[in-house]
Structure formats: C-alpha cells, structure tokens
Amino acid sequence: MAGSDGLMMHRLAMTRPLTLDTFCDSEVIEVIGSGSSGNIAFGVRIIDGGRTFPGDVSKWQWKRMQEKKERQIEKARLLRERQAYEERKRQELLASSNSGIPVIGSYSSDAEILKLFFPESTIAGMGRPMNTLWFDEFPISPLSIRALHEIMGYQKMTKVQEATFPVILEGKDVLAKAKTGTGKTIAFLLPSIEAILKATASSDLRWGRCPVHVLIICPTREPATQAATEAKTLLTYHKRMDAQIVVGGTNNNTEANNLQKNPCQVLVATPGRLLDHMSSSKEVVMQLSKLKMLVLDEADRLLDMGFKTDLDRLIKQLPASRQILLFCATVPKEVHEVSHDALKEVHVFIDTVGKDEEKTHAKVEQSYIISPLDNQLEVVLVFCTTARVTALMAEWSQNLGWVVHQDVKITFTDWDERDVLARRVRVSLCWLHGRNRFCVL
Ligand SMILES: Nc1ncnc2c1ncn2[C@@H]1O[C@H](COP(=O)(O)OP(=O)(O)OP(=O)(O)O)[C@@H](O)[C@H]1O
To answer: Any idea where the DEAD-box RNA helicase Q domain is (predicted)?
Structure first.
C-alpha cells in the first residue's frame, strides 16, 4: 500500500466512494496517477503532512488550539471592557440622581409634543444606554431584593425600571413609555412597595386601617392576574403586606367577601369590576380613601378599549393627593389627554423607546401563517380581547360562511400569556370531531 519517499498507493474498488478524508491527516495531497476499468489505482504524494507540534499534536490540532486560545483572550478582553463601561455608567447615574432627575437630550417626538403641552414637566430616560444597574444599588427594601434574587432570579434592572424608579420614589407623577415585555410591571411595583413602607411607617397610617395604598388598574383580567401574581411574589417576605385582585368574569360576592376579610395594601383591578364594588360597598370606598398611588397599567390599551369614562369616574372618587403613574407601550392622543387631565402639571415623561422604534421588544417572538384557500385549516381558534370584540368576530366569521359553534364549552385555567403550556381549552367532543370548526373566544 505505501511506497517509498512519501508516495502512498491505494487500490480501491470503484464502488467505494473516495474522499480526501480517506487520507487522514495528510493536509496537502497531489493525485499522481489514475486507473483502468474495474479497479482504480492511483497514488498521492504527501506534500506537507505528518509533521507534529508541541504536545505531539498534528498541525491542524495545533492550529485549532491556537484559534481557541485567541477566542478566549478576545472574550476576556470584551468582558473587561463591558465591566469598565458598566462601572462608568453606574457612577454617571449615581452622580446625576444625586443632583435631581437626570435630564437627557435627544428627545423623541412624543417627548417634544409633551414638552409643548407641559413646559414645566421634566423629560427623562431618552438617549441613555441603560440596563446596567443592579437592584441593590437602589434604596429598595432588603425584603423586596430578597424576593427579586431568590424567587424571581433577577439581579439587574431593565431600562424602564432604572429610568422610572428614582423618579417615582421622589413622589412625582410619571408617564412612562416602554416596549411590551420590558419589565414595566416590576417598574411600578417596586416603588409602590417602597411607598407603602413609607406610608405605614408614618404615624397617621397604621397597618390594617384604610389598607389600600396602591391601586393598579389593568385593561383586562390577564394583565391584572400577572400584576397581582408579581406583586404577591415581591411581597413574599413582607409578612404584613398583601395584594388582591378584583376582575370581571369571577364571582362578585366571593371577591367582596375576600376584600372585607383580608384587607390588602396593593389592589389590582379592572375598571368596570372595581366600580361595581365601589358602588355596592361603602367598605371598599373606605378602603380606598387614603390611597397613595394609582397606577394605570397599559394606559393606551385601557383607553383604546373604551374605559375613558370609567377611568374618569374612578379617578374622581379617589383622593386628590395620590401620585399617578401611567405605563404604556405607545402614547397616542388619548393618553396625552388623560395625562393632561389626571397627572399633576409638573410630571415626568420617561420615554425608553424613542422615535420610530418598534413598540414590541425584539425578544418577543411574533409570527403568522398565510394559508392558501384550498389548504385552509379545519379548526380555527380566535382569541379576542373583550366580549364585544368576540361577538363582532363571531358575526363576521358567520358572514364568511364559517360554522361558528356557540355552544362550545371553553374554560381557561390560569391563563398566562407567557406560558403557553399553562393554557387549557376544554371543548366538547362533538365540536372537536366536527368539520369547519371555528371558535371565537
Ligand atoms: N429586571 C428584570 N430582569 C429579568 N427579567 C425581568 C426583569 N423585570 C421583568 N422581567 C421579566 O420580563 C418579562 C416581561 O415583563 P413585564 O410583563 O413586566 O413587561 P411589560 O413591559 O409589562 O410587558 P407587557 O406590556 O406585555 O405587559 C416578565 O417575564 C418579567 O418577569
């Protein structure tokens, strides 16, 4: 098989595929002959192979080791640079928060519009690379920090959390704009808990009296449930504090009893259901009479869904001295109007999105399927936001000739939009085995 002077001769059956791998570590080869029919005979001259390097490794292995080493050196350099950058930013932010609210240039168009409306208001948050600060760098209760670290596993603040926390803590009204999925819930919950701790430490408000200090209004049951869950998690180690939820689609009486028996400091609600409770129970109105903070979560959606009148009614019944926080992904005209009516004239607009940016966080995956007519799906489940939109969709679908099953029994257990596996849709067998099934939820 092997000839002298580095010449290797191979005689192989034609049926066997030949590749250069056949010649193992020989890195440069030269074909020096070819064969006749049936069998093929050829030779290769190993021009530059077989050499070894320190550690008795081949040249290829040596090269790969060197490349790996270079990659590691580069990675370490980048890490050092990032740490130095983070430290610099931390120092800058600490310095600016000592001298008041950081006011940064390069405002978004929303900010510029707001500035026209409210020349006295401060605009913060834009143009700053953030997401660099640790929770424990802020004056946050150690019990909240413990829940953040141990239960939620969060160490650093997100951009919107960094930007809003010091401003909210100062007691200012805030309109905050941040992309969907950027951590707005914790952004308003953390300073809310601090506000409760501050209020309960003062002499006029004792535990158990006029207990609701923070009211969070969400457009629908699902974000309300999420906010209440996160509030409960953050309050895990605050043994004397609790959060409760009142939302549509649940038993009114059970909720009312719960509110009476277990007074809470954080109340999460949808507008309609809260107004129902307030009109039927003086106790609920009493509980809200010393409210310190009102949060309108997803304010843009609240208004888009037609809750303006409900919100006006609600705000009128709450104490005038409360702090108001508006959190949203977009700031349309309606949000400007509400901020104009409800927020103090000197409030802070914090925009972490900027001009022309997508309103959804890049990590929130979105997709769609275009299905050709002759390949249409037989089962379609359409999820809508409200009962009214659901009825409209059902009507349209019927007009399109779909069989819309009205009698389908569908229940959700613990709807959680972030955990698809937690969704449960129960449908009747007859519906399941039918054809052209269309269901609007
Ligand atoms: N500091 C943080 N570090 C890591 N993850 C976080 C942090 N803050 C929040 N999160 C997580 O990020 C996800 C999105 O947060 P959240 O739902 O509050 O965003 P959002 O801006 O309110 O979005 P949406 O508009 O959909 O309600 C949640 O799973 C939340 O637990």
So the answer is: 133-162
